[in-house]
Amino acid sequence: MISENELNSYKSEFIEKYENLQQLTVSTSGLVKNAERTDDRKAYKDVSWIDYWRAMTGNHQTTLSCNSCWKEINVGEPTFAQKFDYISKGETAADHQAMGVHVWMTAPTEEDWKGGRYITPLCPACNNKRGQQINLRVGSLLCKEEGAQKS
Known about the structure:
Layout: H1 4-18, E1 23-25, E2 30-34, E3 41-42, H2 49-57, E4 63-65, E5 72-74, H3 80-88, E6 99-105, E7 116-122, H4 124-127, E8 133-136, E9 141-144, E10 149-150
Helix pairs in contact: 1-2
């Protein structure tokens, strides 16, 4: 797992190189398309998409919630108590792994942001809805995918 200092350093280096960091906060509940065919896209310097999101948004927490279904999700290994809780619900730690997921945002006509691919944390079940419309909860923080490379 990448430390807070490493995330901050990554963000600084990224901004120095790309001079662009676009974020948006979902203000009204609505459906967005879970982007498909993004498996070959790699974040700058090959970090995971969830760590890209954590660096770009400044949210360095390791316990998050899925921005679609609200399920608790973890960056890295969950605690013993979390694992016990998951097992008691018939789930596994893998069901709660935080994933940085590409969603497709269309450009609005009156806002000051661009459409395109944005990254948001989702659980594996919501991530598996590739190509489908998913609901993003109000307050969800997204960051624009910039500097992606194909593998």
